[in-house]
Design goal:
Strand content: over 45%
Largest sheet: 22 strands, antiparallel, barrel
Structural class: mainly beta
Distance between the termini: 43 Å
Number of helices: 7
Number of strands: 38
Shape: globular
Helix content: under 10%
């Protein structure tokens, strides 16, 4: 209720500010007119090198996302940028259990993500404070993506961006009446429908314009049984406020249902093959395996352990994200940006467990199955306000602002009964009527951040920026069921500085550099972070003795731009301190509680190179190379001094040393296409680097298409073919799906997923 009041009050304040007559523009004030646009310094390319930025920054326009197969996550699209490692077990990069993105050695839950400035949390699976970008907005409605590999802007609404920051921006409604319709079909019975209607500017309503869109996608899994499907609704309104700015409102809804692929081990792949998966639709085999496990009988072939396969697993999520945003000039040189938002999520992650039978199993005449459905259930209700002021005072551009969020997160572990004769529940539906609640906790997270910064232009060639942000996050817990937990844990740092410079040595060449400090706040969840032990003594110990994770990032680089070429080279050094490690106590899916402890620091050094060269007006090439050396500085030692893991000097998990991305593209006379190739070096899923080494991979994707002439029946018509994994490469995609382990000399850790084979998709798009 408090979150609803907060959102209502904030939206009301935005509307009042927008309508206030005291802010009306003075028609006689020529200075109030928008400034003339800066000289266009961008090549006609889909990748923009961050000219003028003191940080390593690249931007992808919607053209890039549009060249991917329809429904592809924007995360997969940014995989081509330097410093980025991305994996997924599906062709679209949207299957959340498998999705992994790391940047400069920082994994997904150590990065920051926003959509139109609204925080998406850390985008981890079973997220406690946000939602995945694939659920936040349909990919067709994303206008651009901005990646800061080392450190985002001080005003970024994130408490997890120890490493890089990804900011997604939605497309605005267009000024003319119209819309688009996209139809896609392809491998594994995939089909997707996307429609967007544009109102155009409605002059009777002061130029109000908006759009509403619907996307619906379904696909069979590429192996095993089951489906992955999603329906999304997006809407946005923009009200111009004369030459002062605009007021906008947005609404995004997602209904996602995805069935899981089984986590594999290297030995399972050798023994059962890359296409091995859960048993669905073979219910009898799942029942036989569970019964054999519970009674001590031999497991049915080809099982060697009961964890070789379950009947099914799934992720079920409903999300609503909505709010309002105000951009307005308060005076000639002062601008206000403010956003109020609300996010509600209902989610369940489930699997058919042979470890807990349905009550009544073993009783004569009982229909109870020797298995049950285990869920982890998530309910998020969070709301917040983000606001900032910018004052342009000539040589100095001052900015400052704050972010406040209250997040109510409820999490539970429950079990639901099944019948032995046939499945009685839909694995893609929300489960109800549990026979047992193992635990349930209610968390409240209150976040405050503030920042202030000065961008000082000393000359036409040289400018510097300096500022800092403050952060305070409090996490509290209340027990509904399970082991009693109470208390509060705080993450706080009042001074996290950021300084940088840009020196323009010539019209084509500039040098940049900077230093940033960041802190990652504790998370509020029963499955990760300080509360995951579900033990009061351990929680008290963490609150008194541990410090949040922190990072110090140095960057130095150069950018070069001519009429046909733009490129960047950057070197970086990162000190990652107070690394907190949750050591798994068993199979990840079984859910044994981890133990959180400070296991020292990580040192990361690397270089990044990227460039685009336009060979002709029709042909261009792009390449990016990353060298990353990330190593643990310390061994893992327990409180009693015993060595737990020999990690000192070992390579950080899921961090390849060498990454190369290349792309050649053309666009002429309506024909267009691109061929992308990605080389990813070998990656460890073991902290000690003993076993668990996923081989290097080289994967290619192909896009071909034709845009009809902008006249007659072909106006706005486009046909596109996408071929993913063009050479049908058999490789390991995701590692660490079941968690990272100390060592795996025998190859038995069930924590990898194989990549999908070659798949083909055909899209027909029509604008009107």
């Amino acid at each position: 209720m408090k979150n609803h009041l907060l959102l209502s009050a904030a939206i009301g304040a935005l509307v009042i500010v927008a309508a206030s007559p005291s802010l009306a523009a003075d028609k006689s004030d020529a200075a109030a007119a928008p400034a003339a646009p800066a000289e266009n310094t961008e090549l006609d390319t889909v990748i923009i090198i961050g000219q003028g930025q003191s940080r390593q920054v690249q931007t992808l326009k919607d053209d890039t996302i549009g060249l991917e197969a329809a429904g592809t996550s924007a995360l997969k699209a940014i995989d081509k940028l330097p410093g980025v490692t991305f994996q997924s077990a599906d062709a679209f990069g949207a299957y959340e259990w498998s999705t992994r993105i790391s940047i400069r050695g920082f994994n997904q839950n150590q990065l920051g993500f926003t959509l139109d400035g609204v925080p998406l949390g850390d985008m981890s699976y079973g997220n406690h404070n946000g939602l995945h970008i694939s659920r936040a907005i349909a990919s067709e409605n994303i206008g651009r993506v901005e990646l800061a590999q080392g450190a985002g802007a001080l005003g970024t609404a994130s408490t997890s961006n120890l490493g890089g920051t990804l900011q997604f921006f939605s497309r605005d409604p267009q000024a003319t009446l119209g819309g688009e319709l996209d139809l896609t079909g392809g491998s594994d019975a995939m089909h997707r429908y996307f429609g967007r209607f544009e109102t155009g500017a409605i002059e009777q309503l002061g130029g109000l314009r908006g759009y509403v869109s619907v996307a619906d996608q379904k696909s069979d899994k590429w192996k095993g049984g089951g489906q992955q499907k999603q329906r999304q609704y997006d809407a946005k309104l923009v009200m111009p406020l004369g030459d002062r700015g605009d007021l906008s409102a947005f609404y995004h809804r997602s209904e996602r249902r995805e069935q899981d692929y089984q986590d594999l081990s290297f030995n399972m792949i050798k023994r059962l093959g890359r296409d091995w998966d859960n048993t669905q639709p073979n219910w009898a085999l799942a029942i036989a395996a569970a019964r054999a496990y519970l009674t001590g009988a031999p497991l049915p072939a080809p099982f060697q352990t009961v964890d070789d396969a379950y009947y099914a697993g799934a992720g079920v999520r409903d999300d609503d994200l909505y709010g309002a945003k105000l951009n307005v000039k308060l005076a000639d040189h002062v601008k206000l940006d403010a956003t109020a938002y609300q996010h509600k999520n209902k989610g369940q992650g489930l699997w058919y467990t042979p470890y807990v039978p349905t009550p009544g199993f073993g009783t004569a005449g009982s229909p109870a199955a020797p298995l049950s459905i285990r869920t982890t259930e998530y309910d998020i209700d969070r709301g917040g306000v983000i606001a900032g002021l910018t004052a342009d005072l000539g040589a100095h551009r001052l900015s400052g602002g704050f972010w406040h969020e209250v997040n109510n997160f409820n999490q539970a572990r429950r079990f639901y009964g099944e019948t032995a004769a046939a499945p009685s529940r839909d694995p893609l539906g929300f489960q109800s009527n549990p026979f047992f609640t193992q635990w349930q906790y209610a968390f409240v997270t209150k976040t405050w951040t503030g920042h202030i910064e000065d961008e000082w232009t000393l000359s036409d060639a040289f400018k510097i920026n300096f500022g800092f942000k403050s952060m305070k996050v409090t996490n509290s817990v209340k027990t509904v069921a399970g082991n009693p937990l109470t208390g509060q844990i705080e993450s706080k740092d009042e001074f996290l500085p950021q300084v940088g410079f840009v020196y323009k040595a010539s019209p084509d060449f500039e040098v940049f550099g900077g230093y940033t400090e960041n802190m990652g706040a504790y998370v509020s969840a029963a499955t990760s972070g300080p509360f995951a032990s579900q033990n009061q003594d351990r929680v008290n110990y963490i609150a008194k003795t541990l410090a949040p994770e922190s990072s110090k990032t140095f960057e130095l680089g150069a950018r070069y731009r001519t009429e046909r070429f733009q490129g960047v080279a950057a070197a970086y050094h990162v000190a990652f301190d107070n690394r907190l490690l949750a050591v798994a106590q068993g199979s990840a899916i079984v859910g044994n509680a981890p133990v959180l402890s400070n296991v020292g620091s990580v040192e990361t050094k690397g270089i990044e190179l990227a460039g685009t060269y336009r060979l002709t007006d029709a042909w261009s090439v792009y390449g990016a190379y990353t060298y990353n050396d990330s190593k643990y500085d310390n061994d893992v030692v327990s409180l009693d001094g015993k060595l737990q893991a020999r990690t000192k000097g070992k390579t950080v998990v899921n961090t390849p040393k060498n990454i190369f991305k290349g792309e050649i593209s053309f666009d002429q006379n309506g024909f267009f296409g691109k061929l992308g190739v990605a080389y990813t070096g070998e990656r460890y899923y073991t902290y000690e680097n003993i076993g668990g080494l996923a081989p290097s991979t080289t994967v290619a994707d192909l896009t071909l298409g034709y845009r009809f002439a902008e006249e007659g029946w072909g106006k706005g018509l486009e046909v596109q073919i996408n071929v993913t994994n063009l050479t049908n490469k058999d490789y390991i995609s995701t590692i660490g799906s079941g968690g990272f382990v100390n060592s795996d000399p025998t190859g038995d850790a069930q924590t990898v997923l194989t990549a999908p084979p070659r798949q083909v998709f055909l899209s027909v798009k029509k604008r009107f």
